[in-house]
Automatic annotation (TrEMBL):
SUPFAM superfamilies: YkuJ-like. This is DUF1797 domain-containing protein. Pfam families: DUF1797 (PF08796).
Length: 75
């Protein structure tokens, strides 16, 4: 059985390892865009925008970001 969190964490690590100062990824479920995640390289902070709720959260811990995305996706 594959872990949903593992896949989310791999995508977040790729954001940290990529080039550019600010990187953005979208997380979808069944074709619906549920979350936008932005990584600020300069400040080492992730921002999670929960699209349906119109809420934003900032994290400096990749595990907490992954858990928040997992919760948003309802996985």
């Amino acid at each position: 059985m594959k872990s949903e969190l593992e896949g989310i964490i791999k995508r977040l690590i790729a954001m940290q390892d990529g080039s550019g100062t600010i990187k953005t990824r979208h997380f979808e479920k069944d074709g619906e865009d549920l979350a936008k995640v932005t990584y600020d390289e300069d400040n080492k902070v992730f921002q999670v925008d929960e699209i349906q709720a119109g809420e934003s959260y900032k994290f400096d811990n990749i595990d907490l970001v992954a858990i928040e995305i997992y919760d948003i996706l309802g996985a």
